[in-house]
Amino acid sequence: MNIRILTAVAVASALASGCMMGPRATDSAVWSLCDASRPGARCDVNVVRNDSTGKYACALGRFDVSPDFLEFRGGRPVNVRFSVPSGFEFCAADGAALKAGSLSASYPQLYESFGADKDDGSRVDTAKACRQFWIWNWGNLGAGTQHEYLIRFRDMSGRQCTIDPFFKNG
User: Fold this and answer.
1) Lowest-pLDDT range, 14-18, 22-26, 44-48, 161-165?
2) CA angle, 88 then 47 then 143, to 5°
3) Considering just the CA atoms, what is the radius of gyration of the chain in Å?
4) Which end of the chain is more exposed for a tag (fewer CB within 10 A), N or C?
5) Between 94 and 32, whose confidence is greater?
6) pLDDT at residue 102 in the model
7) CA–CA separation, 34 vs 28, rounded Å?
8) In a domain, 132, yes or no
9) Per the structure, how many domains does the chain have?
10) Within a domain: residue 157?
11) What is the CATH number for 56?
12) Count of CB atoms within 10 A of residue 86's CB?
């Protein structure tokens, strides 16, 4: 039996058994650790503009995400604060969202997702359409599961950018 047939049989078998094969980070990924062992823990994810060597590119320029691969340690729910550089913001259709096909159906993760005016997650002006920060209340269930997600933001003229780093529960 050749390798293509074996691969097809393995994939069909996994799908038939209900096993989801979600996206995986590369083996060379360096995971930044975030301690989620204490109640109310917070992990920060920062989008950084880097026009010369940024890993993610869109019509608005090149960007890096710091950290690009974030692993939550401690097995407890965690608050995740996303930020974008000055001159960019999260508006109504923006923010962070799990990509289709993630393992969220097997391990429900996202309890709350919203835009915030301040670093601490507060919303000062409830009528405001765009915000500097995006907040997730994340379940951190299923140790070792990886989740590919999108970060969508825009510039002040309304042009949107989408980038896609990874999370890992632990």
Assistant:
1) 14-18
2) 135
3) 18
4) N
5) 94
6) 60
7) 19
8) yes
9) 1
10) yes
11) 2.60.40
12) 8
In a domain, 10, yes or no: no
Q: What are phi and psi of 97, to 5 degrees?
A: -150, 145
Tell whether the model's pLDDT for residue 151 goes beyond 70. Answer: yes
Whole-angstrom distance, CA of residue 87 vs CA of residue 106: 37
Residues in the chain: 170
Please, what sign has the CA dihedral across residues 10, 15, 17, 18?
A: positive
Q: Are 104 and 147 in contact (CB under 8 A)?
A: yes
Please give the structure tokens belonging to residue 129: 């359409």
Helix (H) or strand (E) holding 3: helix 3-16
Residue numbers of the domain that contains 160:
25-168
Annotate 64-86 with DSSP letters as a single string. Answer: EEESSEEEEESSS-EEEEEE--T
121's tokens: 């997650």
pLDDT at residue 56 is higher than 80 = yes
Is 124 inside any structural domain?
yes
Query: Position 7: which residue type?
Result: T
CA–CA distance, 138 with 50 (Å, rounded to integer): 28
**What is the residue whose two structure tokens read 């109640």?**
39
